Amino acid sequence: MANSKRELFLKRRLRVRNKLKKRNVGGLRLSVHRSNKNISVQLIDDVNGTTIAAASSLEKDLGVAGKNNVEAAAKVGAAIAERAKKAGVEECYFDRGGFLFHGKVKALADAAREGGLKF
Q: Coiled-coil segments, which residues (predicted)?
């Protein structure tokens, strides 16, 4: 019996998270969430359980509110890189969740790398 799309997504998410937990000891995690309308990203310290920086396409100052496209994802990626630099963070691990590294997720990652984040 075939798994539903949701079950496959959850399997992928757990697989990615478990691989990160093995490599990421005490490091920071750049977690991406993509919905049908928006994309958001958080820089998370898993040791303390705190969010250090966050960016979303819902923010009015980015000028991409309501747009769910590659350009909006790139602006969100640039914003998180800038906010991470202000917080003194240069390296992190990229947690794509269950989303494929393609399209908007890839654009966000590339923009964050161009902004100075290393992962």
A: none
